[in-house]
């Protein structure tokens, strides 16, 4: 009887530990629809993210920020070229001529991650492009901050 009770208790505790480990706090929320800011796209940003937007007439700009680890900027405008691979190639050219460009570290369909070296400090950034309807959406890290490769990967995954 005690042996059976002990087994049941161990099984219950193991199940509880497994359940709690799967319920860890997740800083990622469900997808957020950016239509309220004029962009018919969704991203998976942290639940506490702050959204700021500017409508410049010919272009829209949304910045999504959460703490010091997450900051993305989304620029949208009319798509001149609908071929995402051409748009990515143009973005690669633009980042490669930046003063602090070091190397492209990872490439994906629709974008890439690259490393910058700013006075001996490594900093990572990304470019990711979507074309939806008549509009092009360019995702990149926010303009302020330095980010590790892992932080940039998290940001990139949130917009894919």
Task: Describe the fold and architecture.
The protein has 160 residues and is of the alpha+beta class. It has one domain (26-159): Protein Transport Mog1p, Chain A. It has 3 helices and 9 strands. The chain has helices spanning 2-22, 84-96, 149-159; strands at residues 32-33, 42-43, 50-55, 59-66, 70-78, 101-108, 111-118, 121-132, 135-141. The strands form 2 sheets. It has a 7-stranded antiparallel β-sheet with strand order 3-4-5-9-8-7-6, sandwiched between helices. A two-stranded antiparallel sheet has the order 1-2. A hairpin with a 3-residue loop joins strand 3 (50-55) and strand 4 (59-66). It starts with a helix and ends with a helix. Mean pLDDT is 84; it is low at 4-28.
Task: Provide keyphrases for this structure.
160 residues; alpha+beta; Protein Transport Mog1p, Chain A; 7-stranded antiparallel beta sheet; 3 helices; 39% strand
- Provide the CATH topology: Protein Transport Mog1p, Chain A
CATH superfamily: Mog1/PsbP, alpha/beta/alpha sandwich
Helix/sheet category = alpha+beta
What is the number of E strands?
9
- What share of the residues does DSSP label as strand, in percent? 35-45%
Overall radius of gyration:
21 Å
**Uncertain stretches:** 4-28
Given this structure, which CATH class is correct? Alpha Beta
Q: What order do the SSEs take from the amino end to the carboxyl end, as H and E? A: HEEEEEHEEEEH
The percentage helix is 25-40%
Major sheet characteristics: 7 strands, antiparallel
Write the layout of secondary structure elements.
Blueprint: H1 2-22, E1 32-33, E2 42-43, E3 50-55, E4 59-66, E5 70-78, H2 84-96, E6 101-108, E7 111-118, E8 121-132, E9 135-141, H3 149-159
């Amino acid at each position: 009887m005690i042996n059976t009770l002990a087994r049941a208790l161990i099984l219950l505790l193991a199940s509880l530990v497994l359940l709690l480990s799967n319920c860890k706090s997740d800083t990622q929320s469900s997808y957020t629809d950016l239509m309220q800011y004029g962009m018919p796209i969704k991203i998976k940003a942290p639940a506490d993210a702050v959204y700021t937007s500017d409508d410049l007439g010919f272009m829209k700009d949304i910045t999504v920020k959460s703490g010091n680890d997450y900051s993305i900027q989304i620029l949208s405008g009319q798509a001149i070229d609908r071929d995402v691979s051409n748009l990515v190639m143009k973005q690669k050219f633009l980042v490669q001529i930046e003063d602090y460009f070091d190397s492209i570290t990872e490439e994906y369909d629709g974008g890439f991650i690259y490393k910058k070296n700013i006075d001996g400090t490594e900093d990572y950034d990304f470019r990711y492009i979507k074309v939806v309807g008549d509009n092009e959406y360019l995702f990149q890290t926010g303009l302020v901050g330095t980010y590790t490769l892992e932080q940039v990967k998290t940001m990139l995954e949130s917009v894919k």
